[in-house]
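Changelog entry

Holo records now carry the ligand SMILES as an explicit input line rather than a separate metadata file. Below, a converted record for glutathione, shown in the new format.
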Amino acid sequence: MTLRNKLYTYKGGPRSIGILAVAHAIDFDIEVVETNPQVGLSEEYLKLNRLGKTPTFVGSDGTVLTECMAIALHVASQDPESRMLGPTQKDFIYIVQWMSFCNSDVVKRMAAWILPLLGVAPYAAQGVEMAKKQTAQAIQILEDHLRDRRHLVADCLTLADLFCAGLVSFGFANVFDKAWRSGFPCFTAWYEMVTSLEMYRAVQPETVMVEIALGPPTPSMRTTYTADD
Ligand SMILES: N[C@@H](CCC(=O)N[C@@H](CS)C(=O)NCC(=O)O)C(=O)O
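Structure line, unchanged by the conversion:
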């Protein structure tokens, strides 16, 4: 029996979209194994990822990787001819910079804004308002960077674009509504460009951009669950 590469993740998981899109772009076979921490995890999975997070990669050669950035870099590097890791070594460093920025500061701020509204983290109006401001502050960095460029790095499509667009899809689908988007036109145009690419659409056929941001959760939705993000 031939072993396949596996990615343990859940459908539409923002930390997995870029991994799957780059795999598609370089024709690297990965089977998605539906795994959702909010639904419950098997003992077997907890041996692979001891903090019970997704995604986790298990390669056909036995490689086990946690941390979405490491997985994305590993997958992208399977095709040495591909430009997905940037034309130069310095571009590669900038790719890692943007991936890290989005996977840490942007995701944390967005999650603090959105998860309480979805009822998957405790809700406090003040906390949500603060997280909304802090998200705008982080996205402004991307907006300024993209003002005179089409791509995050090196004026060509790289892993940074696919990976970061996947991460912020969570914002566009829930709170980056029409009014909010008008304040970030370059960031929004970049997102529309990346999400319309065939390799992105192969993973995420539909891109949701909300008209009106989520409002406060109803009392029955509120929770005390505390996922990190
Ligand atoms: N440092 C990890 C974080 C992974 C992570 O937090 N994943 C989220 C899903 S996108 C998760 O598993 N959350 C469940 C929880 O925190 O309980 C990475 O960058 O891959």
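Spot-checked after migration. The mean pLDDT is 96. DSSP finds nine helices and four strands in the chain.
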